[in-house]
User: What shape does this take?
Amino acid sequence: MVRDDGDRKVAVQCDCAHLGQRIALFNACAIPGKFAGRWIEDLNDQHRSQKEVKYALLKYRDEYKLGDSGFLLWGEPGVGKTHLLCGLLGYLTLERGIAARFVDIMHLMMDLKKAYSEHRWDTEVVAPLIAADVLVIDELGKGKCSEWELAILDQLISTRYNAGKTLHCTSNYPPESTGSQVSMESAVGYDPTARTETLKERVGDRIFSRLNEMCTFFHVEGEDWRRKGLKKFGLKRKQTTGGVQ
Assistant: This one.
């Protein structure tokens, strides 16, 4: 019980109830278990671009207002893109009480195919992603990018675009060929044969146009932390007939 401006006793919700609500928001966010305890500050920022995006996101999370534009972090695997955006979602849900969702693009397509096979409506899968105040789409551009997959992605992004809702993405593909190829060649561990397509080519002009308006594109560079972990223990990957050791 507290006293209001008229010196009357009124009941207000206690802090523990708010805590429970925020824990529920965090759990509903569906952050992968590997990244559930990761925060923006934890990223080992050894490259200049990692430092820049890290501090840009720290500033963003404190000043975020519903409907603000998001980030599209692109670059080679293992440079911290997913780590950073999962850290952002953890903060927004637990510290700010903002409803958010994380979805891996391949898992989304698998969930939709399962829903169809079980004769459930696809809206059961897509609706929570549309409703969230903040959405992170991981691995954008990955997969077959079939006509059906692009139609689903277009529906999701366009609906959020029209509703003025925040979208963040990660991708291993450079946005466009013009000017982006040089940037990719400067990346640590860049393999010129690894990825010749661009994100624009993978998702199409319509979706790419929406992304340009909804997100600030940021090239994240650095050493692949997974390979770095192998080096730390004196291990290296070698290809065998039975797979990778």
Residues 179-193, 239-245 have pLDDT under 50 and may be disordered. Strands lie at 2-3, 9-10, 70-74, 100-104, 134-138, 166-171, 215-219, 239-240, 243-244. The domain at 10-233 is CATH 3.40.50.300 (Rossmann fold).
